[in-house]
Amino acid sequence: MLGGGGREHAIVKALARSPQNPRLFCAPGNPGIAADATCLPGIDPSDVPAVVEAALENGIDLVAVGPEAPLVAGAVDALTEAGIRAFGPTREAARLEGSKTFAKEAMREVGIPTASFTVLGDRDEALDRVSRASYPLVLKADGLAAGKGVLICPTEAEAGEAVEVFFTERRFGKTEVVLEEFLDGEELSLVAICDGEVAIPLAPAQDYKRIGDGDTGPNTGGMGSYSPVATVSDRDLAELSATVHQPIVDLMARRGHPFHGILYAGLMMTASGPKVLEYNTRFGDPETQAVLPRLRSDLVELFTAACQPGGLAGLASGPAAESGRQLIEFSPEWAVTVVLASAGYPASSSKGDPIEGLAAAAETAEVIHAGTAEHEGGVVTAGGRVLNLTGLGPDAAAARQRAYDAAEAIQFEGKQMRSDIADRAVERAGQDRYK
Ligand code: AMP
Ligand code: GLY
C-alpha cells in the first residue's frame, strides 16, 4: 500500500480482513497502520524509483496506490514495467484527475452530464468571459490543488478577484483555468472499481468539506463522511454508474489507455439529475473510511482482478457467481466517520501533541489514523487531520452515536471536529426507504 493517511489505513484494514491472509507492507504508513502492516517510513510514495526498489526488495506481489500524486508521477507505469502488479491507473489514465480540462473534454466527448464550461487561457480572455457570464459561477485551476483550487464566485466582483488570483497572483501556479456553471444540490461521492473494461460501483458516500458546522468556513480535506446515502437507492446505483463511470472506462479503452483502479465521481444531485463535478482516480478521503468498513468482499481479490484486462468480469462469472454471491457485497449497516483535526486546521496545523483515549475510543468505533506519529512510546498528532472515528450501526443514528462516543473519548490539545456529521442522514431516516 502506498500512502500514510486515513484513507490508506482504511484500505489496509480492509485488505487485512481478506481470507487470503496477505502479508501487508505500507509506504510510508503510520502508527495505526503499523498494527496491520509493516510500515516503510522512509519511503515517499511519490518517489517512483524508491517505490519500485522497495517493492522489489520486499518481494511485493501487488502494489495498491492510495493518493493521487504517485499516480500522476507514473508509479503504476514504472511498477508494471518492473514486472510488479500495480492497482491504479497509469499516468495517462490518471489525467482524469490531474487535469480538469482533460476530464471536462472527456465528459463532453461521451456526453456525461456535467456543468457547462469554457477553458480560459489568459487574463484578458478570463476578464472578458466573466463580464458576460451569469452568476454564481465557478473558477477552477486545471491541475492538482488538493481541493483548494476551486473558487465559487457569487458576483462579477468576486469573479474579477478570482481572475487575479489565478492569472496575476498565480496562487495555483501557471495553470489553465476552467470557468464553470454553478450547480446547486446535494453532493454524492460514488467510486467504481475498474478493470480496463468494466466499472463496478462500490457503496455511495457523502463527504463534509467545510471546517464548520452547517457547512461554514473554509474548505478542508474533509471533516467527516457517511455511507450509504439515501439520495440514491441500490437500483439507481447501477444506472448512475453506467452513466458516470462506464462511458469514461469505454473512452479510455478506445484511446488505448485502459482505466484500471478506482474511478471516483464527485456528483451534484441537481434538480435536473446527477451531474459530475469532478473525477478522481483513487479512493476518496474521508469517504473510504465510511465505505470500506462496510465491505464484505475480499478486497485483495478485487484489486488483483482489476489489474487484469476484464478481470472483474472474469470474477463475476467465476465461482463467486455460481455460489450466488454478489461480486461486491456491503453490509446493510450504516457507517459514520468523524474527523478529528489539529488546532489551526486548515490554515495551519499543530504537531507533536500527545493523544489520549485511543483504547477507549476503539471500544465503540474503528479508530483510523490519519495524521499521527509515535513519540517516546506514545502516539502524538502529526498534522492537519489526525484521527477518523468510524461508527457502525443498524441505522444512521446508532452509527453516528458510536462515532461521536469515540470522538469524545479522544483528547489532544486543540482538537477540532464538526458536531453535525450525518445529521442529514439521521433526519431523513424517517422519510426514506433506502435499502
Ligand atoms: P472539485 O475539486 O471540482 O470537486 O471541486 C471541489 C468542490 O467545489 C466540490 O466538491 C463542490 O463542493 C464545489 N464545486 C465544484 N464545482 C462546482 C460547481 N460547478 N457548482 C457548485 N459547486 C462546485
Ligand atoms: N473527499 C474528496 C476527495 O477525496 O477528493
Describe the protein in words.
This protein is an alpha+beta fold. It folds into 4 domains: 2-90, Rossmann fold; 116-181, 2-Layer Sandwich (Dna Ligase, domain 1); 186-322, 2-Layer Sandwich (D-amino Acid Aminotransferase, Chain A, domain 1); 334-428, Alpha-Beta Complex (Glycinamide Ribonucleotide Synthetase, Chain A, domain 4), CATH 3.90.600. Helix content is 32%, strand content 26%. The chain has a 5-stranded antiparallel beta sheet with strand order 12-15-18-23-20. Strands 6-9-7-8 form a 4-stranded antiparallel beta sheet, sandwiched between helices. Helix 1 links the parallel strand 1 and strand 2 (25-28). The model has no long low-confidence stretch (mean pLDDT 93). Residues 115, 138, 140, 147, 150, 152, 180, 182-183, 187, 209, 266, 277-278 line the site of adenosine monophosphate (AMP).
